[in-house]
Amino acid sequence: MKAVVGGTKVLQLQEVDNPNIEDDEVLIHVEAAGVNRADILQRKGLHPPPKGASPYLGLECSGIVEQVGRNVTRWKIGDQVCALLGGGGYAEKVAVPAGHVLPVPHGISLKDAASFPVVACTVWSTAFMMSRLSAGETFLIHGGSTEFGTFAIQIAKYFGMRVFVSTGSEERLAFCKYLGADVGINYKTEDFVARVKKETGGRGVDVILDCVGGPYFQHHLNSLNVDGRLFIFRIHGRFVSEVNLQTLFTRRLTVQAAGLRTRSPENKAEIVAEVEKNVWPAIVAGKVKPVVYKQFPLSDASEAHRLLESGQPIGKILLLPRC
Question: By three-state DSSP, how is residue 224 classified?
Answer without folding.
Answer: strand
